[in-house]
Prior knowledge:
Radius of gyration of chain B: 16 Å
Distance between the termini of chain B: 39 Å
Largest sheet of chain A: 5 strands, mixed
Mean pLDDT of chain A: 96
CATH superfamily of chain B: Histidine kinase-like ATPase, C-terminal domain
Structural class of chain B: alpha+beta
CATH class of chain A: Alpha Beta
CATH superfamily of chain A: STAS domain
Structural class of chain A: alpha/beta
Strand order of the largest sheet of chain A: 1-2-3-4-5
Low-confidence stretches of chain A: none
Oligomer: heterodimer
Largest interface: A-B, 23 and 27 residues
Number of domains of chain A: 1
Distance between the termini of chain A: 28 Å
Helix content of chain B: 25-40%
Number of strands of chain B: 6
Strand content of chain A: 25-35%
CATH architecture of chain A: 2-Layer Sandwich
Number of domains of chain B: 1
Number of strands of chain A: 5
Largest sheet of chain B: 6 strands, antiparallel
Order of helices and strands of chain B: EEHHEEHEE
Strand order of the largest sheet of chain B: 1-2-3-4-6-5
Low-confidence stretches of chain B: 1-26
Amino acid sequence: MQINPRRLEKATIFDVSGDIDLANSPEIRKTLLTEMRDKKTPRVIVNLTNVRYIDSSGVASLVEGLKTSRDLGLRFILYGLSPAAREVLQLSRLLKIFEIHEDEEHALA
Amino acid sequence: MKKVPPVANVNASTNVQRSASSPTDLALKPAKAGERVPLLRLKFFSNPELLGVVRSAVSALSESVGFSPEASRAVIRAVDEGLANIMRHAYSGQRDLPIHLTCWSVAASLPKGAKAAIEIEIMDRGSAMPDGKLNAPRPRELSAGGLGLEWMRKSMDVVQHSRKGKTNYLRMTKYGM
């Protein structure tokens, strides 16, 4: 798994690739929470286009990101969900809780 | 990158011979109702870095018995979450303790419309799962706890947990349509 930030004027996009599971979800969580708490970036966007698999600890990290963004008055956005990612958010009844867009253009609009 | 210890032992049953002519090999399925064909047995350590290795093996196997991509994803998800629970809770994060995973193809009592079924047993020697935990509902919508168990229940047709002596047994069955 790799997570790389692209910093724009009022947003940071995190490009994630590979599988998100118990081995690396703490890194995702730490990266997202640090961005929000330390940098107060108004819009934190996670690009999941190249994520083939995400487990419950990965989704839990995204939920923590969402909660933190709400506490700090920031926006937390996901885009590029694979069928596997969409399925697990559906299973968890979280699909409508997150702000989800099809692609980067809509996430930045 | 963290160094990954070698997988202790990976051996597939000898009757997992694939036909070169058929992408969904019928030899992996039982010939008659009631038969249970052993397909795969993996022994590995409780290191989360190995979860991807096991997912790859289970993915290839479920596709080989003719499961749809969606049904395969459900099996992979349930196995991965079962293993993650063992690593986090039963073994409290210790990375060098044994886990055994066995897969069978079963033909007995297939529901109408099902083309195949996979039965999976995962064994560990860790602490016991608290009574009622497997079927406990997830507390709240935005609660991260309990997600994995909920996914296992929703992804598989049968999920059972038992403990005999000091061994935990997680048994799961999926009917592939």
